[in-house]
Amino acid sequence: MAERSTAAVDVADNSGDEPLAAGAAKATADGVDTQNGRAADGPMPETDGERTNAAPAAAPELHSGHKLARRYRLEECVTRLDGFSSWRAMDEKLRRAVGVHLLPADHPRARTVLAAARSSALLGDPRFVQVLDAVEENDLVYVVHEWLPDATELTAILAAGPLEPHEAYQLVSQVSQAMTAAHREGLAHLRLTPSAILRTSTGQYRIRGLAVNAALRGITSETPQRADTEAIGALLYSALTQRWPYETDAYGLAGLPKGVGLIAPDQVRAGVHRGLGELAMRALANDGATASRQEPACTTPEELSKAVAAMPRIRPPEPAFTAPPEYQHTTYQQGSYGRPLPPGGPTVQVTSTPPPPLQSRTGRALKWGVAALLIAALGLGSWQLADRLLDHRNKGNGNNGTQEQQQPGGDKAPEKKNPVPLSIRGAAEYYPDGTAQNSDGVSKTYDGDTSTYWRTKSFFEGPKLTIKSGVGIVYDLGAEQEINEASIALRFAGKHTTLALYAADSMDPEPKRTVSDTKKIAGTTTDEQKVRLTVEKPVKSRYVLLWITAMPHAPVDDFSSSGFKQGITDVKFTG
User: Fold this and answer.
1) Average pLDDT, integer, range 383-401
2) What is the spatial distance between Cα 522 and Cα 171, in angstroms, rounded to a whole number?
3) Which CATH number fits domain 421-574: 3.30.1330.10, 1.10.3720.10, 3.40.50.10800, 2.60.120.260?
């Protein structure tokens, strides 16, 4: 009988697992990554954790395309280790990507993995990658979790260089607060490595594998709070120095020099923020001792979180500013008459000087009186001249004072054109982050059938999109056209739908340029299902991007759960 978790959490967007290098590395039963020549679990300290020694069962022989529970279609194996495998899969019921951990039901850690997954699902904290399902079925145990394609592993971020102080502060603050909440519910991570930390496009850090990653690898600890706190200290140390704070290289980072022990971050790299470096040393407590001599060690995530909160606030870096070229003031220098030229040249003496201004009351009155008479004379003369010219033109045309409006060159003014429909020759979804919403439904937005539509996924946060900068479609008008207006029919009514039109360069669904680099030509926010976007000044373009950045909350439908989402049923352009 299949045993299904009743604590499964259904949320709107997705997350990744811990992928190996391209072409998943082969691993032996004791967890050694033979491709990279290091322990696959990373050189975490063995003083606080231990690995169970029971021989793992063989990993299930599954392949891409296999379907679990007639719902989760396996697509790509990202990890194969210690008798279990991890996959990127597609939830065909909700049409979204998910991650799946798989292991045989008779695996010695199968029961522990199920229990850890269900406990993690019950927490329901959005700072953690959510467990969606935990199932034992057909001699298999599998755990389904979010897949976040828009997020970036800390491993990849650190490969590019250390974090600046404000970003490192955000990392240690958010992770320590999240782990404080988890430990209050009796949950530990025990595998807080750089590959377990994800940064979303909005700058939020999310933690994956709470309790589950350690259970899959058989990692336990008698002091779980200290183990997780030291792991957070290692993350902060790595973020500040781009070095792993142990002698062994790990996670793409070089370890510390052998035989010197744990040294302060500012001794590894110049310019490290002193307060953050001290905090990392307080968290890296080895056998109860800390490398920080000035402050007591932090041995729980809560203590570390309080220490972070007690620090002076670290401001984000100022945006780069390029000063404009210096303005050259032009001044009139008095007293230059008769000034000699450089040596060797003649001296020029100016014999005439400018007359002094009228400074007396009589002089000022005379000046203003003359100016007033000149203005009056010019106005009267101009009026008389215009009146005579107009009378002469009316008589010559024989129209009793009425005439056609003409341009200065004598041509008639162009007549205002009536708007005409513009044909849409093609369209493609626009997703600069590499994650499409519903590419197959794009053509339904201009097929003339209002019952068909393109739709977005259902998002957990809103109405303004936070995990993405926006979603949209680029339309091809076949040739450069003058665009005056767009008529758009939406699937869902409700407040906060925010749309905009941009003049795009191409129909490439994955352009290198962002929307901010594109010219915006119209925009609005509406709570109706039909909206017109009028271009204030007509713009010529072949490609037009319809971009959505906020959406109303809508109920469950055939494609997704309730959440912030929108659909487009019909689009028409006029020019």
Assistant:
1) 54
2) 38
3) 2.60.120.260
